[in-house]
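User: Let's play a game. I give you a shape written as tokens, and you guess the letters that built it. Ready? Here's round one.
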């Protein structure tokens, strides 16, 4: 069993701190202009400290609007965000498998909506829009079966594997002595923390730094039955005491799934950390801030312009407060206000244009329907949505692969070990072909485009059907399509629940019964004619046949 010391883990942590490069300063610049309540990347602020005035809130509003748009498109409040399905076509129609996947899907949504997932997910999305990278944690909770956290990136450090996927997370955090004892227990803590815990003046005021290291377990056996040979290894280190905090009697514990998901909004090929719209639009946001500052100065000059006075002829001290009286000598020249002649309209136009550029840089136009009064068909609206979604699809794809895929796998593991999920049916034992189908607005729009493509194809074929005769043409055309698969996929694309769609075996049974009834009806209609035919032919039907009964 591979065991690391506290000194080795702390040395590795220092390496990850150095590998960040200039990202902390870039995050700080982005947060200063777009996330003023979360601007602690290179500078620490006391709680409630007022923010510096940047004369604009456009960037902050854009971050919130982009996060809200992604949230509503990926995790709708009035319907499911995803369903579990299986690639195996035969198993996908098995009743036990269908019921199991449907129940697990319902349970996952229940615990997500009943926990702190919603607001934690929104915090993550704001981090992605504002600094390009977010850290999402899921694990067993004390008050609920599962809990979620979105951790600040100033305390989170990552490393990647040979596939350039994030597989290592080192997170630094602070606990008071009271919190440390609640989390780890007195018997597992060092001298420094216990000394503070014994002092009433320090127990809830003095903070200690801790380190959580989580990375792939070199001793993993792939079975995920023993925490010490689980897929991931987890260490907690007290920095001040330079000691590893024991868990369940061991220096480290195991995680059967990755507890951390590191998500990047976008990423350059040579970088580990993500990029985002705020980084791209930072220069425009700074320019917008400067333009608004210039406009404020212009307003000041218009409303309270400089007072022009002669060198002499006035009595000082001079007061320009409202209602004040200016005294001048009888021979003195009267004072007058300096006239402002700046191009205020030009400044307003520049502010409006820059504001539009910033909003477009945050993809906010993708979430809005056309604002003009022109009536449009559903086809036209879908075509416009397709054009917009071309920009958003890669972003959603990264969120699905880096967040929701691993997160759902983690949730199934955590809730399953807590006995909160139904028992896996025998048909799925050892089967790893379960997959996730996303049902958010974006996923449904993309599927609706497929449905619309089929509808348009059939509309274009209608003239051929009309020319050749409906019955013959329809038979020839439909021979080219898997109509059963088309109907089932169209229903799923339109959001029809899986348990509303009949299993293929049930459909085959209904069709077989319908065929038998149709065959019986056809025979009953032909029997009278058959009997008459025998009589007219002067032949006797075979003994015991139906025709014998009809000819009698």
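Assistant: Ready! My guess for every position:
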């Amino acid at each position: 069993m591979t065991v690391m010391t506290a000194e080795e883990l702390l040395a590795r942590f220092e390496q990850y701190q150095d590998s960040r490069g200039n990202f902390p300063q870039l995050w700080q610049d982005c947060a200063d202009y777009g996330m003023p309540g979360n601007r602690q990347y290179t500078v620490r602020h006391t709680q409630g400290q007022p923010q510096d005035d940047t004369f604009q809130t456009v960037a902050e509003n854009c971050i919130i609007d982009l996060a809200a748009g992604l949230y509503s498109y990926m995790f709708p409040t009035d319907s499911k965000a995803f369903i579990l399905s299986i690639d195996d076509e035969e198993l996908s129609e098995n009743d036990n498998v269908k019921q199991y996947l449907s129940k697990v899907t319902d349970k996952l949504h229940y615990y997500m909506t009943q926990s702190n997932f919603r607001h934690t997910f929104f915090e993550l999305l704001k981090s992605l829009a504002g600094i390009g990278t977010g850290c999402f944690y899921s694990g067993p909770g004390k008050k609920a079966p599962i809990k979620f956290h979105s951790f600040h990136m100033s305390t989170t450090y990552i490393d990647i594997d040979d596939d350039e996927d994030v597989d290592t997370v080192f997170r630094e955090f602070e606990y008071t002595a009271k919190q440390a004892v609640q989390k780890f227990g007195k018997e597992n803590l060092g001298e420094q923390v216990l000394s503070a815990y014994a002092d009433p003046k320090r127990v809830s005021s003095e903070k200690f730094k801790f380190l959580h290291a989580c990375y792939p377990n070199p001793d993993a056996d792939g079975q995920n039955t023993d925490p010490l040979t689980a897929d991931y290894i987890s260490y907690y280190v007290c920095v001040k005491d330079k000691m590893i905090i024991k868990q369940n009697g061991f220096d480290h514990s195991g995680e059967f799934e990755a507890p951390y998901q590191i998500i990047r909004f976008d990423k350059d090929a040579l970088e580990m950390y993500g990029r985002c719209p705020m980084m791209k639009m930072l220069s425009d946001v700074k320019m917008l801030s400067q333009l608004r500052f210039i406009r404020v100065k212009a307003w000041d000059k218009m409303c309270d312009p400089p007072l022009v006075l002669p060198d002499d002829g006035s009595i000082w001290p001079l007061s320009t407060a409202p209602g004040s009286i200016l005294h001048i000598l009888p021979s003195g020249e009267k004072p007058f206000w300096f006239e402002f002649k700046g191009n205020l309209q030009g400044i307003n136009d520049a502010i409006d244009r820059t504001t539009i550029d910033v909003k477009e840089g945050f993809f906010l136009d993708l979430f809005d329907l056309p604002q003009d009064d022109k009536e449009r068909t559903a086809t036209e609206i879908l075509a416009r949505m397709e054009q917009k979604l071309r920009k958003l699809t890669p972003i959603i794809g990264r969120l699905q692969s880096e967040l929701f895929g691993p997160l759902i796998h983690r949730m199934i593991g955590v809730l399953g070990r807590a006995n909160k999920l139904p028992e896996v049916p025998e048909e799925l034992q050892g089967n790893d072909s379960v997959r996730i189908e996303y049902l958010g607005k974006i996923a449904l729009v993309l599927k609706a485009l497929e449905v619309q493509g089929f509808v348009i194809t059939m509309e274009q074929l209608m003239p051929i059907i009309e020319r050749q005769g409906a019955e013959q043409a329809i038979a020839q055309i439909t021979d080219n399509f898997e109509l059963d698969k088309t109907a089932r996929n169209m229903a799923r694309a339109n959001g029809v629940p899986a348990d509303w769609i009949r299993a293929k075996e049930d459909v085959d049974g209904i069709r077989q019964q319908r065929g038998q009834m149709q065959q019986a009806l056809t025979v009953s209609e032909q029997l009278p004619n058959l009997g008459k035919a025998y009589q007219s032919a002067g032949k006797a039907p075979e003994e015991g046949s139906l025709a014998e009964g009809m000819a009698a």
